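Much of our argument rests on the idea that a fold can be written as discrete symbols. The amino acid sequence and the backbone structure tokens for this protein are reproduced below:

___
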Amino acid sequence: MPLKLTNFLRKLQNQYVTLELQNGSTVYGMVISVSPHSNVNLRDATLDRYYNSDSVYSEVTPQPISTSHLKNINVKECFIRQVILPDSLDLDSILVNANEVNGLTRSGKLADLGGNRKRRRRSSSNMTKRLRG
């Protein structure tokens, strides 16, 4: 089963991300929660509003018209154009689906990395049994 976008965004909790909105604005903040409809709630957010891209005043590297610092902001899913992830984010650990890993370890196709199996005593031919006396 593929990892859904909502579940992926939920795994980004307590990470700083940048959301580019449909109107060209950007919101940078820490992900607090993600609703089942992919609405994103951010804390300590910075909202940058830019010139419209169709405007005569647009530049190659546009400067924001205004910047607002917000304590909390909830961004509805239909207004998000893209989610920009930080470079320091470890995607390998986020993209791993826990249910698939558990299924593969049970089937024996993947080595158990958790170390939660009981130790098994290896028997060798040179081991001597203790005599009871």
